[in-house]
Amino acid sequence: MMTTAPMTDDQGSKKGLEIVRTVADLRQVVSSWHKDGLSVGLVPTMGALHAGHLALIEQSVNAMDRTVATLFVNPKQFGPNEDLDTYPRDEDGDRDKLSVAGTDLLFAPSADEMYARGNSTGVSVAGLGDILEGEFRPGFFDGVATVVAKLLIQAGADTAYFGEKDYQQLLVIRRLARDLDIPTVIEGVAIVRADDGLALSSRNAYLSDEERRIAPALHQTLLGAAEKAGAGEDVAGIEAWAHTQLLDAGFTSVDYLTVRDAETLEAYGALGKDRPARVLAAAKLGSTRLIDNIPAE
Ligand code: PAF
Predict the structure, then answer these.
(1) Of the four, 85, 217, 219, 267, which is 20 to 30 A from 155 by CA?
(2) Cα of 70 to ligand 1 centre, how many Å?
(3) Nearest protein Cα to ligand 1, atom 8
């Protein structure tokens, strides 16, 4: 059951943030909004909200009549040696931030609500989900695609918002929505950066002071790589230069820094050099893995 009163008064004006924890309640609220002719935006999150998430909420609040945020730390997208147990969790703090940002509804299900016992169906985006992040985090995109497909189907929102910080994830989600005929429009939202260029991420909380000082080198290296790509330098040379830059700056290891076709993430140039390109990177600072990307103009 919903934890509080309905979300509109008799005149249909907005009330504060309400919380539901079951799919049935989520569906009931969204369908009542749709019956009233209201548009609905969806912002899926794993919580530990920062200004990057709030930019997604802001975009939805500005464009749609009602905004639903979801908070679910999805176990299916964490590998066996990843940070599921220590992933930052702060539901009370998240609720306050969502409320101030004008969110209408928070869907915060339990793992049992999301994954019925004996569940055995998953969504896998072949090809696009197997490269780059998919190569370094096996199973990650299967977990993301499965939970996002479920959230899109559960909410039935008109538009869903995802950050460009997880650029490959955004492309995977666009592909799955298209392939599964999920009618929700998928909107990408620009990366929010700290003043020194570091892309905001919940995992930045893991960085020590010294690592936090080094971290902006990732964005600086992406900028250098984009400039080189724009000047027509070959991708292998750019990759070699960028790896050296990052290791010299103090990064522990580099999973990839590469230039790819911005729509397919295939090798840049394979489909013609007149197409948009994206520079994408993943690198480790101590035990924290950072990812970032920018367009290559
Ligand atoms: O980007 C995230 O926070 C997650 O991957 C998402 C899209 C909420 C799915 O769990």
Answers:
(1) 85
(2) 10
(3) 45
pLDDT in tens, 260-288: 999 999 999 877 778 999 999 999 999 99
293 forms beta bridges with 280
Q: Is the dihedral of CA 179, 116, 34, 164 positive or negative?
A: negative
**In the structure encoding, which two tokens stand for residue 261, read together?**
């076709």
Query: What domains lie within the chain, and their CATH numbers?
Result: 3-189 (3.40.50.620), 202-296 (3.30.1300.10)
Q: What is the pLDDT of residues 59-71, one digit of tens each?
A: 999 999 999 999 9
What is d(CA 114, CA 199) in angstroms, rounded to the nearest whole number? 30
For ligand 1, mutation pick of 144, 189, 291 (most atoms within 8 Å of CB): 144
**Tokens 């299967």 — which residue?**
142
Average pLDDT by stretches of 10, the chain with 297 residues: 49 82 98 98 98 98 98 97 94 98 98 98 98 98 98 99 98 98 98 98 96 98 97 96 98 98 92 90 97 94
Residue 6: per-residue pLDDT: 42
